[in-house]
Each structure stands twice: as structure tokens, then as C-alpha cells.
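Page 47, continued from p. 46.
Same chain as before, 263 aa.
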Amino acid sequence: MYRAIAAAASLAGVLSLVPVRATAQSTDLSGVWVATGGVGRVDRGDPLASNLASRDANLVNFERDNALMRRADPNKPLYKPEFWARVQELDQNGNSADPSYGCMPGGVPRMGPPAKIVQAPKELIFLYVSPPAQGWGDQYRVIPTDGRAHTPLQELDGTWKGESIGRWEGDTLVIDTIGLTDSSWLDIRGYFHSENMHVVERLRREGATLTWQATVEDPDVLIKPWTMNPRTLRINPDPKAMLPESLPCVERDLSHLVTKEHH
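Result:
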């Protein structure tokens, strides 16, 4: 009897030393992730077009109304006063100025969260497909998590994806990226940046849900860091789920544009 009590007390003491992790949170990010919400593509002949939340259920107004909603978003990067004219000019001429409309990649952070994550002990591989207005072509990123430091910025050539290094802060994956080209935009509204931009992405999984959010620091053009709106994804439960292949992007529209309306 006393032996049983002593054994139980000993076991309880051992278990009290074991750290407890909430079961809903996980540092395993592997899987195919599907974005929730957002604006999808609708064909003109699709009978569901009549259910679009736009004036007269019209596809053209659907595009216009969503552009208005984007502009009404109060979460905007705050540019230094001398750069607002450039932002407005780029926005007004987005059909020709936006790099993603010319078959260029979206770049970090505009490319957003990945569609698939493959996790290894010392690195993660992010796979992307081409979402509307976020760059073109299937993309990938390799994110080391082995504790390495960044290459000095002056030794890096600016690229669309930059140099990304990951680390874990509890259950949150933090990705630190520098060395980005200034050819990319932050968003569709003409939000440009400099080559000194620094991006920190945070990914956190809770059950079947993944939340992604990025903060942009660019003291060359921004008054203060800008934290983008978070995006939520759900894991695809199908163990055989595959990513769709993106069609090649061929720019045929620029020479035929007659308005400055985003397409």
C-alpha cells in the first residue's frame, strides 16, 4: 500500500517536470494550406456570378467595388510626405506599372503565405502557386532554421525573395528577410519600397489553421514599420492533395489597354 502511494507520488513529481504544450498549437507546419476568404475568379458564364457582392451583380462592378474596398482599408503603410505623389502615380497607372501585371514574381512579402510547406529538421521549403495579382509562376523558398546569421546586406544582390532565415519563438515561426530588390511592390495599390526593406513574417499553427502576418520595415521611405493584415489558411485534410500547376504568364494586354482600371 505504502509502496504504491510512494510510486504514485514519485511519478507525479516526474510528470510535473515535463513541459506541457497546448494540444491545439503545433510547430509542425507541413502540409497543403488553402487560403480562406478573399476574391476568387468567376467566369462570365458562371451562374454564381449573380451572387457576387457588387452593384447589379455585375462582374465589372465586382472588380471596381473590390478595388474600392481595398482602398478603404484603414491599414495602410505610412510613407514619408515626399513619396505620396509617387505612390498615387503608381496606383493610377497600375495596369502598366505593377510588376505582377507584367509576369514578374510577387516577391516577399507580397507573395504572402505558401500553398505548401515541407518541414525538415534544419529548414523549411515553401511552395507557391500563382494567385491573382500576387506574382506569376510557381515559386519556392528555402528557409534555413539552423541558427545561421544573415549575410551582410552590402554583400547581397537584391532579389525578389531575398535572403530568408527562420527561427522559432515558442510555437511561432519567425522568418527574417533582407536583400530584396526594389522592383517589387508591397501590394496592388502602388506600395513600393527600397532595397533596404526588412521583412519579418510570423506563422503560427493552431489545429488545422495557419495564420500568417508580415511586418515591413523600410526607414528609407516609410515613417514607421507597417504590419500587414493577417491571412488565415486551413490545411487540406486529403493526404494525396497536390498543388495545381500555374499556367505560364504571357503579357498580351498592355498594348490593348484603353483605361487605367485594374484588370
